[in-house]
UniProtKB/TrEMBL annotation:
Protein name: Substrate-binding domain-containing protein
Regions crossing the membrane: none
Matches recorded under PROSITE patterns: VWFA
Domain VWFA intervals: 347-549
InterPro entries with a match to the protein in the record: VWF_A, vWFA_dom_sf
Protein's organism: Nonomuraea monospora
Length: 560
């Protein structure tokens, strides 16, 4: 009886030794640890940290060293900037979007960046609203990019923006914000709504949230009569609902389709051993265990399929959302430049015609030309953020004493600056409302342009778009006393204009006599790289405000 027992014990010992040898051959840590420093965006870092914990416990060995993965969180834009500056310290980077990588490649140091090596998850960019308010949107906003643009368009004063307030993420700091900008811009241009897009972007630039957490929290706070709607990633909504189940948010999927965050992997290390570790961990991220952890955290697979976290009863659509064609690198770079230029600081002096004809009635309305243009000009103030610098002069012959055809009403300065107990913006609104036409006044346009252009040239600011905006119902100069002649004004502008310090004239003329002076007014504007607009009716001036805003994107070479 002892002999078979002794044999069984011996066999067990031998099997144990064999298992130990086999295990340690695959998990040999005799050489110590091989650290792999991973940096990931804050949304996916918790899930990656959990995956890394399981990976470390499994003792993955590279050249007799066990890989030890640590996962730090850092905003993708910050990591990107460090990369572009050659100061990245991580070995392995999981960003939230390839779109961000494309935008970095457009920078001066972009060519030196390593290539992306595949994606590990996706999350579509969607519209979002508080669950309690979603039902109110049915009559005001259908889930689509075109509807969002219409609601955000500051120039569409009678549109859905009366009932809906759109919030956005800064596309220069947030990949979901950049994806939303690209999706909205692409669909707007396909629908021939370029001007509406400009109006929407100007409005959204003043409604930016710092991150998805702040944006989603603001959707559930009641403020005013308008329903807030945001744009963020589907996974961000899931994470919000997990943390704040008492104030849930639902995802609204744009009918045109959308772009998705794709969480690309980029291997940054150049060390041979660490490269092997990075390749091994990258392989682990494609395993079923890792995929389940990501799906449970609200992410979709690379194929767009959702897990149990994204169900209809939780405010989501499990079906894979329709996808828009992803933009190429050149398109991404142009859109980033567009956003940057559109949101450059503004320095604008408005010259407002107060000659006698401004007291005439606008056909089909109960307003005079002065009342109508003042109302539209006040609306136009909404295109500019508080940091913009603006001022107002009125003009008509002998307006400020004999021979002086212009008068400063509000000096040029920040809209938020206080003047006599009120902000400059409030002063402008008040001044526009009180302005009256000078019944005996002619236009006196040329003297006014020369004086204003001289003043703005002296006070030119490099970090802003410097513009002289002229609003007139006349056919040009109309100065019985002479003053600056047409040819003299053109010669002055051509001599004074400096393309390296562009001060551009935008001239908007309206009224039945405006077309008579079209050639001269166009020559005046073109001499400074600007544009002259002739309105068929005074209400068309709203449209021209946006066209003038579009020119910010190409100045000073819009016609080159």
């Amino acid at each position: 009886m002892l002999v078979p027992l002794a044999g069984a014990v011996a066999l067990a010992v031998l099997l144990g030794v064999a298992a130990f040898v086999i295990f340690n051959r695959d998990h040999d840590c005799s050489g110590g640890k091989l650290p792999l420093r991973v940096v990931a965006t804050p949304d996916i870092q918790p899930a990656l940290n959990k995956i890394a914990g399981n990976y470390n416990k499994a003792l993955h060995s590279i050249d007799s060293k066990c890989v030890e993965v640590t996962v730090a969180k850092e905003a993708a834009a910050r990591t990107a900037n460090a990369l572009a500056a050659g100061k990245a310290t991580a070995d392995f980077w999981v960003a939230d979007s390839s779109l961000l990588m494309e935008s970095i490649r457009a920078t001066g140091n972009g060519d030196a960046l390593p290539q992306v090596e595949g994606s590990i998850a996706t999350s579509p960019v969607v519209l979002a609203a508080a669950k309690s308010a979603a039902a109110k949107l049915s009559g005001a906003l259908q889930p689509s990019w075109v509807s969002m643009i219409s609601a955000a368009n500051v120039a569409n004063v009678d549109g859905p923006g009366r009932k809906v307030r759109v919030l956005a993420l800064d596309p220069q700091k947030n990949s979901a914000g950049l994806a939303a900008l690209l999706a909205a811009a692409g669909t707007a241009r396909a629908a021939k709504q370029d001007q509406a897009l400009v109006g929407a972007l100007k409005e959204l630039s003043g409604q930016l949230a710092s991150d998805s957490t702040a944006l989603l929290a603001s959707l559930t706070v009641k403020s005013g009569s308008r329903v807030p709607v945001g744009v963020t990633s589907e996974q961000a909504i899931y994470a919000h609902n997990v943390k704040k189940p008492e104030s849930p948010v639902v995802a609204l999927y744009p009918k045109e389709g959308t772009l998705s965050l794709d969480y690309p992997v980029t291997i940054l290390t150049k060390d041979p051993g660490t490269l092997k570790a990075a390749a091994d961990f990258k392989q682990a991220l494609t395993g079923e265990s890792a995929k389940k952890i990501l799906r449970d955290a609200g992410f979709r697979g690379t194929d767009g399929k959702a897990g149990d976290a994204l169900t209809e009863d939780k405010g989501f659509t499990a079906e894979t959302p329709a996808a828009l064609d992803p933009p190429d690198g050149a398109t991404v770079a142009r859109m980033v430049q567009t956003w940057t230029r559109l949101n450059l600081g503004t320095r604008l002096l408005t010259l407002l015609d107060v000659s006698g004809t401004m007291a005439l009635q606008v056909p089909g309305t109960n307003m005079t030309r002065m009342q109508a243009i003042n109302r539209i000009a006040t609306e136009g103030l909404g295109l500019f953020p508080a940091g913009s610098e603006m001022g107002l002069w009125s003009f008509s012959t002998h307006l400020d004493g004999q021979g002086k055809d212009y008068k400063e009403l509000v000096s040029v300065g920040p809209l938020s600056e206080t003047i006599d107990g009120a902000t400059r913006k409030e002063q402008l609104v008040r001044t526009f409302a009180q302005l009256q036409a000078k019944s005996t006044g002619d236009t006196g346009l040329n003297d006014t342009i020369k004086a204003a252009y001289t003043e703005l040239t002296k006070s030119f600011q490099e970090d802003k778009v410097n513009t002289l905006l002229i609003l007139t119902d006349g056919a040009g100069n109309d100065d019985p006393d002479g003053g600056v002649k047409n040819a003299e004004l053109l010669e002055f502008l051509k001599k004074t204009y400096n393309p390296k310090r562009p001060l551009t004239i935008l001239l908007i003329a309206f009224g039945p006599d405006a077309k008579k002076g079209k050639a001269q007014m166009e020559a005046v504007a073109k001499a400074t790289g600007g544009e002259a607009y002739i309105a068929e009716n005074i209400l068309q001036v709203r449209e021209f405000f946006l066209q003038g805003m579009e020119r910010r994107l190409c100045m000073p070479n819009c016609d080159g």
